[in-house]
């Protein structure tokens, strides 16, 4: 099978071999239901509890604050819809660049008596100060702002924003899916600042798909999305996916342990790529802000992003034209639109996101392929004109 060099780690990551090894027994000889009151069940319960402890340590939380879900999208929906069902309808405020699972959940609530307010951003991806002040003046009931953007990698100062929002008495949620394993996350510090819930996920950090967590202040009362047997503090009923939860726990532990060293290495790869992109004439988005060390989002004027991604794939490099979670949407990136990027340039956007196994020579190869491909596409455009 043809296997391009993988440069799309913000979409998903390969499962860490150590994580896979830890999961396998729970897909074979250890099949107990964690709710069962015999040794098979107790064994499974111990595994779930151990994973809960590992996740809690990784994000600076107490184990009782960890609610396992099937993915980051479910965790985001659980907080927003669960909170909306517990509070009187008011304003729900979200960043203009949020993940589709937050944007669409908020849009659904806007049809149920809630008023949606999007917080505008500057060209660097940071909140426009006047828009943030308007948000606070509206005294929102719910606020959701992501730690780091999945497309641009732009990082928001969540602790500062949450502290400023305390005067509104809003419940503040943050999507930490892209930040986990790339930036330090400390829920206790964020909670003291005013954050009530934080979403994290396994498959972005070498864990399995199908396992994530909502880190939730126990003083916040949510209504569950799923009714049933009362698992996960009665917030997420259904028999736990023990294998995936075990994988999530170990993946969190291992990813957090290597943040410091990986951040330096990944930043060097990104700088190497972006020096080459500048030479090729690309526009790189979000460079004026702090960004995730592994993420670069860029475009070439007059070049269609989807076409470029397809040609790079055939040349041996797997990259993305934006968020994998909204790949069915043919419209240009809503993130770039919010940042004031023209639709024509946004249609050319390509995202490269590095991971543990990427090396400098792969970046050099990608730049070579980009130069040849962009040159070829511009030649075709000139002929067509």
Kindly report the name of the CATH homologous superfamily of the largest domain: Type I PLP-dependent aspartate aminotransferase-like (Major domain)
* CATH first level of the largest domain: Alpha Beta
**What share of residues are in beta strands?**
5-15%
Kindly report how far apart the N and C termini lie: 38 Å
Q: What CATH architecture of the largest domain do you see?
A: 3-Layer(aba) Sandwich
SSE order, one letter for each helix or strand: EHHEHEHEHEHEHEEHHHEEHEHHEH
Helicity level: 40-55%
Q: Name the average pLDDT.
A: 95
Please identify the structural class as seen in this structure. Answer: alpha/beta
Counting DSSP H or I runs of 4 or more residues, the number of helices is: 14
Q: Could you explain the architecture of this structure?
A:
This protein folds into 2 domains: 135 residues, Aspartate Aminotransferase, domain 1, CATH 3.90.1150.10; 241 residues, Type I PLP-dependent aspartate aminotransferase-like (Major domain) (Aspartate Aminotransferase, domain 2). The strands form 3 sheets. Strands 2-8-7-6-5-3-4 form a 7-stranded mixed sheet, sandwiched between helices. The longest helix has 25 residues. The two termini are 38 Å apart. 48% of the residues are buried. The mean pLDDT is 95. It is of the alpha/beta class and 385 residues long. Helices cover 42% and strands 12% of the residues. Helix 6 links the parallel strand 5 and strand 6. The chain is globular and about 70 Å long. It contains 14 helices and 12 strands.
């Amino acid at each position: 099978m043809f296997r391009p060099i993988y440069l799309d780690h913000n979409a998903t990551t390969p499962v860490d071999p150590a994580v896979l090894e830890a999961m396998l027994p729970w897909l074979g000889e250890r099949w107990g239901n964690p709710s069962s009151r015999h040794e098979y069940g107790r064994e499974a319960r111990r595994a779930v509890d151990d994973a809960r402890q590992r996740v809690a340590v990784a994000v600076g939380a107490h184990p009782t604050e960890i609610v396992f879900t099937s993915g980051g999208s479910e965790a985001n929906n659980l907080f927003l819809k669960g909170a909306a069902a517990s509070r009187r309808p008011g304003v729900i405020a979200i960043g203009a660049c949020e993940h589709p699972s937050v944007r669409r959940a908020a849009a659904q609530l806007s049809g149920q008596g809630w008023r949606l307010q999007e917080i505008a951003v500057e060209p660097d991806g940071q909140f426009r100060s006047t828009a943030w002040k308007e948000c606070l003046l509206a005294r929102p009931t719910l606020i959701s702002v992501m730690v780091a953007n999945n497309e641009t990698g732009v990082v928001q100062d969540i602790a500062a924003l949450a502290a400023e929002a305390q005067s509104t008495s809003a419940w503040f949620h943050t999507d930490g899916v892209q930040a986990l394993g790339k930036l330090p996350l400390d829920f206790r510090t964020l909670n003291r600042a005013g954050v009530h819930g934080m979403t994290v996920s396994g498959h972005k950090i070498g864990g399995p798909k199908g396992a994530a967590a909502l880190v939730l202040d126990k003083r916040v009362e949510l209504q569950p999305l799923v009714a049933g047997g009362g698992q996960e503090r009665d917030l997420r009923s259904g028999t736990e996916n023990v294998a995936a939860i075990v994988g999530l726990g170990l993946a969190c532990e291992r990813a957090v342990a290597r943040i410091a060293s990986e951040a330096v290495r990944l930043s060097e790869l990104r700088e190497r790529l972006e020096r080459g992109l500048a030479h090729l004439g690309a526009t790189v988005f979000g460079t004026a802000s702090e960004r995730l060390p592994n993420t670069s989002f860029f475009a070439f004027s007059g070049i269609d992003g989807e076409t470029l991604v397809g040609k790079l794939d055939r040349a041996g490099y797997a990259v993305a034209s934006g968020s994998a979670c909204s790949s069915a949407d043919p419209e240009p990136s809503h993130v770039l639109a919010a940042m004031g990027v023209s639709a024509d340039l946004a249609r050319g956007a390509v995202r490269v996101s590095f991971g543990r196994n990427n090396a400098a020579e792969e970046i050099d190869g990608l730049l070579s392929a980009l130069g040849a491909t962009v040159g070829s596409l511009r030649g075709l455009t000139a002929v067509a004109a």
